[in-house]
UniProtKB/TrEMBL annotation, chain A:
Principal place of residence: membrane
SUPFAM superfamilies named in the record: MetI-like (SSF161098)
Gene3D superfamilies: MetI-like
Tagged with keyword Transferase: no
Lineage: Bacteria, Bacillati, Actinomycetota, Actinomycetes, Streptosporangiales
Subcellular location: Cell membrane
Keywords associated with the record: Cell membrane, Membrane, Transmembrane, Transmembrane helix, Transport
InterPro entries reported in the protein's UniProt record: BPD_transp_1_N, MetI-like, MetI-like_sf
Pfam family membership, one: BPD_transp_1_N
Name recorded for this polypeptide: ABC transporter permease
Membrane topology summary: Multi-pass membrane protein
Length: 313, 513
């Protein structure tokens, strides 16, 4: 298992280098005149040129990349070209917001979808059909529509939760819970719909295996069979989907962050990419790669723990 | 019985959930003293400052700066000027020398006195530092120090908008000891009524300010001011409706409709931004047809502005054919409707100019300004008279480069403020420069603008109105309408709009009686 983890960490590091080169190259392709964008249409050209030079934009792309990479390896991700904010500080402020959503949604999705999926798979009949209908509805409804309705009902009309903003967990745990509840609810509905179907299918599949029949003939109780044997084997595909959902939330959080006015990395990434703010986007991408690598590693380790056969493969 | 118990349990659970949620929401956001005197003022905005260095200040982000910096002159809500760091000012006869008398009781936070040297250092740095407003002081020759509290600003030529600029970005005074550092961008150092609360500020999303204990002037009503940036008006309106934001400017008509349905919100209307088709190529260098006055006039006759205003902005605004707003001395109400919607006349004009077969016009389309309904409306109206419009989609990052630097288009649809100072509009839209990058000029415009520039205080009205009429007759622009924006506040705050600016000054907020 240790070798497995070390191999995954090493491949994660290679991935970071490859993605950093690709991202830097892609961000440099548009040839946006950053100085002009920053200083506006009225600024004299000599000011624009001087500003571009101060950002190193008069250098070849490979020199700029090496400068960035050298500084990044020393822990200096630089400053935003557009707001002068320190990239590391900004990420330290914003990553917890998006991670709060991602972890919250993953937790809620895991609990609810495993419960519903196992229930539907074991009970079948009306319960199964009901769960399937709910899953299809949850999956079919546009995410932004769900979010708009949720904020309108629970925040604006009922006033149960704040409609906008974010309170850090360290400032106020209850405040944090209040500000992330509706966004998590919004993002969880389609995620639950997707994972529930996976769990249900996996449970039905496992229940039809020979060894389950054998266990039944040996007189094991149904709950014991479900929780000790079915769930363990059905978890593998479901966890894989859950892991993919987690990574996908990095993109899916954009709309929710915008609607709730959350200062996370989702909405910010769009804004800064359009502007061509390379230091900030590189910081976001590198952090994202780390989150993705760690998430995938955790999913693999969890699957390996639940199902020893997976470790071998 | 069992069913009733279950229902009761369900109701209890729901009530508990609601109570918990209410408790959470109370803990999470907002305080009871929000918007009240001595409490906290929370402003929501969609404008983000790139930096808090005064040299990089922009008018639309001025409140971020006004919290920590004072300007030399105070611009009152009605656009008139009042003392601030300068207590008195006067021009010489040539209007190239402006004498300023400065306060002698103001210091920066480190004890450095605010004096003539500070003014000289700030003003002389401003045009050199390369900020977005640097050109507003491009006429600056030097700042002469007369004594510790008197300076004379020497200009290369008269600048009728200088007082406006000294009450705006160029007039923000920073600690001279900090001017050579890079720290001002994130650690502002001024003499303003507040200090930046760096612990609660997350640059890029929220700027928090706390009252400066030893402010030299009259205290503003709030102990704390928070300005939060959002990227959509839906979030702003939700924040206003739930009391998490005390005040915000709402520009989109559909969000204004949502506000109108909420009895707890207060609104103040302001017609400020003119939406127009700005023409750059009036000599026909890129598109020969636009060199004909008749074609430019045909563009103006072809648009059904009433239908545009009604359908695109629910009638919220005023139709106009001129670039100067009602607060400017150049404004002439008759010119608002100089060009009626007259497609037949437009076709005649095109024929007179030899374009019976039509004209092709390629324009840039930035989604932030030209939404699909506006693009379709313009395309249909112009297409109806034989002007075939093609839209090129541009994103925010490419727009300035493509339009201003590469000069790829003969015009663009743009929203421009209509400030009280006619000279600000002239510099921005008429004289060779930002939106006249091809440097088009004719004798009338050259003579009238020279007259306005040289005119003594308050004596430029006639020349300004003549210039305005000439620009309309020659169809230099294709204005659509002035758009009504709404200053929306909750039930604790009132705000007074700022003349010539969509964003109110920070001084204009007060508790609602």
């Amino acid at each position: 298992m240790i070798n497995f983890v070390l191999r995954r960490v090493a491949s994660g590091l290679v991935l970071m280098v490859v993605i950093s080169v690709l991202t830097f190259g892609l961000l440099s392709i548009p040839d946006t005149d950053v100085g002009r964008h920053l200083l506006g249409p009225a600024a004299p050209q000599e000011h624009v040129d001087a500003h571009n030079a101060s950002l190193g934009l008069d250098q070849p792309i490979w020199v700029r990349y090496l400068d960035w990479a050298t500084a990044a390896l020393q822990g200096d991700l630089g400053r935003s070209w557009f707001t002068s904010e320190d990239v590391s500080t900004t990420l330290a402020n914003r990553i917890p917001v998006t991670l709060s959503l991602m972890l919250g949604v993953t937790l809620v999705t895991a609990v609810v979808s495993f419960t519903l999926g196992v229930w539907a798979g074991v009970r079948r009949g009306l319960v199964d059909r009901l769960v399937q209908v709910l899953a299809v509805v949850g999956y079919a409804l546009p995410g932004f529509l769900i979010t708009l309705v949720i904020v309108l009902v629970f925040a604006v009309q009922l006033g149960w939760f704040p409609a906008i903003g974010y309170t850090a967990l360290t400032d106020s745990p209850t405040g944090w819970l209040a500000t992330v509840t509706l966004p998590i609810l919004s993002l969880s509905i389609p995620a639950i719909a997707g994972v529930t179907q996976q769990v249900r299918s996996a449970v039905i599949d496992v229940l039809h295996r020979d060894y389950i029949r054998t266990l039944r003939t040996r007189g094991l109780s149904s709950p014991r069979i479900v929780f000790r044997h079915v769930l363990r084997n059905a978890a593998t595909p479901a966890l894989t989907v859950l892991g993919l959902q987690f990574v996908g939330l990095l993109g899916g959080a954009v709309i929710v962050e915008q609607i709730f006015g959350l200062p996370g990395v989702g909405a910010m990434t769009v804004q800064y990419t359009v502007r061509g703010d390379i230091p900030m986007i590189m910081g976001v991408v590198m952090t994202t790669v780390i989150v993705v690598v760690v998430a995938n590693l955790l999913v693999d380790v969890l699957i390996g723990w639940l199902n020893p056969k997976a470790r071998v493969s | 019985m069992l069913r009733r118990m279950r229902r009761t349990r369900a109701h209890t659970a729901l009530a508990a959930l609601g109570a918990t949620a209410l408790a959470l929401s109370g803990c999470g956001t907002g305080a009871d003293d929000d918007g009240e005197a001595g409490g906290e003022l929370t402003i929501g905005t969609m404008t983000m400052p790139q930096s808090l260095d005064p040299a990089e200040a922009m008018g639309a982000a001025l409140p971020f700066f006004q919290a920590v910096y004072d300007t030399l002159l105070l611009r009152e809500p009605d656009g008139s000027y009042a003392p601030m760091l300068a207590t008195d000012w006067s021009y010489d006869e040539s209007r190239t020398e402006l004498q300023l008398e400065l306060r002698d009781d103001v210091t920066f936070t480190d004890g450095t006195p605010f004096d003539a040297e500070a003014v000289q250092a700030n003003l002389e740095r401003f045009p050199e530092a390369g900020g977005g407003q640097a050109q507003t002081l491009s006429d600056l020759e030097e700042v002469e120090i007369v004594d510790d509290h008197d300076v004379v600003i020497h200009l290369e030529q008269p600048n009728p908008a200088l007082l406006f600029y000294l009450s705006d970005a160029a007039g923000l005074m920073a600690n001279p000891n900090a001017l050579d550092d890079d720290t001002l961008a994130t650690e502002p150092d001024g003499t303003g009524p507040y200090e930046l609360d760096t612990g609660n500020t997350a640059i890029g999303s929220t700027w928090a300010y706390t009252r400066s204990d030893d402010y030299w002037g009259e205290d503003l009503p709030y102990d704390e001011v928070t300005i939060t940036v959002f990227d959509n008006e839906n979030a702003l309106v939700n924040g206003l409706r739930t009391g998490q934001i005390n005040s915000a400017l709402i520009q989109e008509v559909d969000q204004q409709d949502v506000v109108a349905d909420d009895e707890d919100l207060h609104t103040v209307d302001q017609d400020i931004d003119m939406q127009s088709l700005l023409l750059f190529d009036r000599e026909g260098e890129m598109n020969p047809a636009l060199g004909d006055t008749e074609v430019r006039q045909a563009l103006n006759y072809a648009l059904d502005r009433e239908a545009m205003l009604e359908h695109l902005r629910s009638g919220q605004g005023e139709i106009t054919n001129q670039i100067f707003g009602p607060e400017s001395v150049a404004y002439d109400p008759e010119l608002d409707t100089y060009y009626d919607h007259d497609p037949e006349r437009a076709r005649e004009l095109l024929a007179e100019a030899g374009h019976e077969d039509g004209v092709e016009l390629t324009l840039p389309k930035m989604q932030e300004i030209v939404g699909d309904p506006l693009a379709t409306s313009i395309e249909n109206d112009l297409g109806d008279v034989g002007i075939d419009v093609t839209w090129d989609n541009l994103d925010e990052g490419d727009a300035i480069q493509s339009i201003m630097v590469e000069q790829a288009y003969p015009g663009m649809v743009m929203n421009n403020a209509q400030p009280a100072s006619e000279w600000v509009t002239i510099v921005e839209l008429v004289l060779p420069g930002t939106f006249n990058f091809l440097g088009t000029m004719d004798d009338t415009i050259a003579e009238r603008t020279a007259e306005i520039q040289q005119a003594p205080e308050g004596e430029a009205a006639d020349a300004a109105q003549e210039l305005n009429r000439h620009l309309v007759e020659e169809a230099w622009f294709v204005p659509f309408y002035r758009m009504t924006y709404q200053h929306v506040t909750d039930d604790s705050v009132e705000v007074e709009p700022q003349s010539g600016m969509a964003v109110p000054s920070l001084y204009n907020y007060s508790p609602l009686d």
